[in-house]
Amino acid sequence: MAEPIIEVRDFHFSFGARPVLSGVSFAVEAGEYVSIIGPNGAGKTTLIRCMNRVLAGGRGDIRIAGRSVAQYRQAELARRVGYVPQAEGRHFAFSVFEFVLMARYPHLSPFSAVRAADEEAARRALRLAGADALADRAHGSLSGGERQKVFIAAAFAQEAPILLLDEPTTFLDPHHQADIFRILHRANREAGVTILTVTHDVNSAVLASSRILALREGRVVYWGGAGSVMDNDVLRRIYDKEFLFASHPVTGQPMLVPEGAAR
User: Fold this and answer.
1) Domain boundaries along the sequence of the chain
2) Residues 215-248 as b or e (16 or more Cβ within 10 Å = b)
3) pTM given for the model
4) CA of 176: how far to CAs of 8, 26, 155, 156, 165, in Å?
5) What backbone torsions phi and psi does residue 59 show, to the nearest 5 degrees?
6) pLDDT of 44-81, one tens digit each?
7) Under CATH, which number does the domain 6-91+160-262 receive?
């Protein structure tokens, strides 16, 4: 059996005296699409920031492609793991193409010139993210949906086999949400990119993912097939509440129904 591309072993992390993650363990195979769900404050963002060493430290081990993240140099790790943070509304004084090109840094030596191959990789990443028409735009002129596509393009430009995303569709309208999901599905299915994404949208997580990881108060309370999470015995452990369900009109998969629809 192939070694997991990501393996988290009994991982603990605290901010000072406050524990945030407690005994988290799971393993992801290459090419999987995994969604991380759970209530606010469950430790979801902290987990993926530890996975790419935005947050250093902790107890236990996180292994990427068979090596502890602590053993990687930062550029090495960036060649393995791309990261799209939560939308923050920040703007940068560069064109979109320049911004995406800067994500090629893991493949460049210090002070080396940008190569034609790096420029082509940046253009390819923009095409894959559906953002090639934005290449000459100023980063500060982008809408929220456009900006999110550009951040995903920058992660693609790293050409890493793993992509971590922190709530990539938050604050986006339904059209842009659908665009982002299509982009991620294409990267996963056609390019074989392993995807872990934090989301509060349980319905989208079930439809998109092969497996779901659910955290509550820093602990794993569910790790398994995506469809099986749609059960009130499971959801009660995650969210401490029960939900209403309806069948998806195409797949028949149970979906959560907004409670307001029952009034």
Assistant:
1) 6-91+160-262
2) bbebebbbeeebeebbeeebbeebbeeebeeeee
3) 0.92
4) 32, 31, 18, 18, 16
5) -125, 145
6) 999 999 999 999 999 999 999 999 999 999 999 999 99
7) 3.40.50.300
